[in-house]
Amino acid sequence: MNNPAPSSPVLSVRNLAVEFPTRTNVVKAVDDVSFELYRGKTLCVVGESGSGKSVSARSVLQIVDRPGRIVGGEMMLTRPDGSSVDIAKLDPRGKAVRAIRGREIAMIFQEPMSSLSPIHKVGDQIGETLRIHFGMKKAERRERVIELLRQVEIPNPEKAIDRYTFEFSGGMRQRVMIAMALACNPSLLIADEPTTALDVTTQAEILALIKRLQVETGMAVLFITHDMGVVAEIADEVLVMYRGKVMERGPVDQIFHAPQNDYTRMLIGSVVKLEKKAEIRVDREPVEMAPDLLLDVRNLGLTFPSGLKAVNDISLAVSPGETLGVVGESGSGKTTMGRCLLRVYDAQEGVINFRRADGSVVDVRTAQGEDLRSVRREIRMIFQDPVGSLNPRKTVADIIAEPLKLARLAKGKELDERVAALMEQVGLDPAWRERYPHAFSGGQRQRIGIARAIAVKPRLIIADEATSALDVSLRSQMLDLMMKLQDEMGLSYIFISHDMSVIRYMCDRVAVMYRGRIVETGKTEDVTSAPQHAYTQALLSAIPNPDPRARRMQDRVRYQESAS
Amino acid sequence: MRAAPLPSYFIPKLETALIGFILKRLLYAIPTLIAVSIVAFIIIQLPPGDYLSTLMADLASQGGAVEEGTVAALRERFGLDQPIYVQYWKWVSNIVMYGDFGISFELNRPVTEVIWGRLGFSFLLAILTLCFIWALAIPVGIISAVRQYSITDYSVTFFAFFMLAVPDFLLALVSMYVLSTYFGQSVGGLFSPEFADAPWSLARLWDFAKHVWLPVFVIGIGSFAALVRIMRANLLDELHRPYVTTARAKGMSELELLLRYPVRMALNPLISTLGWILPAVVSGEIIVSVVMSLPTTGPLLLRALLSQDMYLAGSLILLISVLTVIGTIISDILLAIADPRIRLQ
Questions:
Q1: Please, what are the domains in chain A?
Q2: How many structural domains comprise chain B?
Q3: What are the tens digits of pLDDT across the range A3-30?
Q4: I need a surface site. Which of A263, A534, B69, B253 has the fewest CB within 10 A?
């Protein structure tokens, strides 16, 4: 299975180079990239943000956004009848390349909502391809579109054809995209991060669908992703990219089990590292449930004005020094729950008992005035989006100093020293203190967010998807930093995430949320190795396993909520 | 490994939602119309004294006398001896039930008779102006956006800002002067004198067309310039959206793609501008009509306001406001038809 088919490739890309001229110089987004795609085989192009993987994929269709342009290389497309054409030589606005787009090479994109028009019916958007390439009549088109919708397993295709995209869920939208791509039976499907915006269970469904269609039609698939787990599950061959260059290329098994290149090794290493418990946590004594809990939440309930019970009878507890993971898919209410704990939202029911440093217990849900202010000094938050959560008009020093100033804990020279110490603590050079957030990378920005959160010496930090926006190589670094700070400062964390691997890496206990409820709580090892609730089992089995020798998704289980 | 049967994610009955939306919108218009009628009535009541005391003073000054019976009957007729809300109710119910807008104090004729013919021309002029604005602003806006920062774009932008800055009446005066002095055209009015009172015929229609283009141009050019800018900005926002890339990846030609997706999306905010373009056209028409002596409601309203002919003025204000409310409803309904997302809000 690792040897490419002996037949000639469907598409052969040689020395592709794409440049983006900027005001001052020229950025080589894709530099000397070569690969081949074979019938019925999947090539995964993997890389972190800015690696040029997406630009390479778009170059194949000549749809790179301006000012990007292909400056070199060839892309030979071989048709089933044996004729071939060099796509790189075609005029990007010309007829010849248009005849290839959608007909011989089709593409699906990351954001199915914004990649589909919200004001055209899905049936019309799918049928358009048939009209452009085959000049198919309306009635015939409708019939074929219904057939396509059935093929991608959209329920009720006769009705669905006249619906709009916003009437579908994310997974269904991606199915519509796939139906659109398949309309003309292309010989090559390019999928640009098609499951990144989806939940893991939905991702598993979409990957299974693409695989089934590939087997049925024999098309080649070029799959762009940053997720090594997905790569291991679906790839035949892998191309690793970094800053526009190919780092390594080879069969999937070799990439994962005998990587040749340092960057590949680092990438695989950081993924594999996240598959088990963190090293600094392995030897630590398990945190026992102390009798004097730090946080004791009981029967918390929040109903939105729309009637949606976002948080439904939730009880959880956090001991001093403990990390509690809260895992769930989008819409499970995990973020809303976290915000209730900080009184960003006011929960209508339940108690949130928080034990203050002096031993007194405050119900955060009903606290007012000075009580609430002091509790908010002891509970801090780290956000998902390191760009949006930092004020772009303030220097890093101002951002980190702000909570100290608000709490009147320090001023003048002492404040400066505290800020410098905090920056050092999170691994930032204090010499950068006068810079603005835009001058920092994503990982550094998240460190600024952490420094701000620990500035007032809190005792509980709620981290909402704190590592989700980061590349995988930075993720474990950030988690290691958070654990180091935990040991130094005796912090407790509530770690909210959709990503089971980061939960497993650092959390002592985990609570699994589904539709506003906690369906299972327990020690992380117990929950991940022997899940009790059917939903947890389904969730775990849908997570891609970054080992091509032990593909997990093929025999995953599905969760069907019992009649409710 | 087929997926298990999935729950239906569909929100049902989009078409029912559209009907519901229209009904709701019409229902919302009722309080607006009531508020508008109250404002119009307040305007009628603003000057000291009432219509009859002004009338009697007028007649007395001319040496005539008014019979007590007539005055009493008129007072009874308009309810002038009753509290203000009863007067309002009489005024409104007469309009709604009998189409009776009262009597023009200055012309001594029923208001309905005075304004009916002129209202038709006002309406026609407004519709023609709107058609002119839309038919031209959309293509010009598209070109300006697609060729962003080109000579065309810069010229259009300059022209648009220039026209936005020029007052209507000035443009009317200058264009009339230029046309009559250098081109010998008959300007002013909507007809040449010989056709003014003639019955409709092809020749009269042609004469109308020869006259109407200038007021349409003068009234519309300001709004045209604003719309070009709006269309350009909307389209620039849409041109680089992911769905455009999707359509391109289907193999669609650039022109078809442009018109079918980004332009179609950019039109939606443009439709909602109908709500403020209509009042802008109507109020612009008042000034321009006075300058160009058009037989529309504009000069009539101005004269009514100057001579304190309050039933006439109030009726005109009421009618113009009602037309604006109706225009807004139409633009909302068009928007709901054009954008399915609006229907489900």
A1: 1-104+187-275 (3.40.50.300), 112-183 (no CATH), 279-389+458-545 (3.40.50.300)
A2: 1
A3: 444 578 999 999 999 998 888 888 889 9
A4: B69
